[in-house]
Amino acid sequence: MDRVDRGLKHTCSECAAKYYDLRMKVDACPKCGTKRPAAKAAKTTRKAPNAWGSAFRKYP
């Protein structure tokens, strides 16, 4: 089995077992049966607008 076919690698929070999800929706550890916590939403970072940006803009 190629490494690509294994899917994502996970680590159990209870028994520290490492396992691949095999590209299936696996929500429990195959060794101890502990459910995986829900995935957290990724934070997006945005730069604050420049206070002087409009004063230095070049207009055609």
> What integer value in Å does the Rg equal?
22 Å
Number of discrete helical segments: 0
- Mean of residue pLDDT values: 78
| Topology, number of strands | 2
Give the neighbour order of strands across the main sheet.
Answer: 1-2
Helix share of residues?
under 10%
Content-based structural category? little secondary structure
Which regions contain 5 or more consecutive residues with pLDDT less than 50?
Answer: none
Biggest sheet layout = 2 strands, antiparallel
User: How much beta, percentage-wise?
Assistant: 5-15%
Which overall shape is indicated by the principal axes computed on the Cα atoms? Answer: elongated
Q: Helix and strand string, N-terminal first?
A: EE
Could you tell me how far the N terminus lies from the C terminus, measured between alpha carbons in angstroms?
60 Å
Can you give me a brief rundown of this structure?
With 60 residues, the chain is low in regular secondary structure. It contains no helices and 2 strands. The radius of gyration is 22 Å and the shape is elongated.
SSE arrangement:
Blueprint: E1 9-11, E2 18-20
Antiparallel strand pairs: 1-2
Characteristics of this structure?
little secondary structure; two-stranded antiparallel ribbon
Structure commentary:
This protein has a domain at 1-32. It is 0% helix and 10% strand. A two-stranded antiparallel ribbon has the order 1-2. It has 60 residues and is low in regular secondary structure. It contains no helices and two strands. The chain has strands spanning 9-11, 18-20. It is elongated, with a radius of gyration of 22 Å.
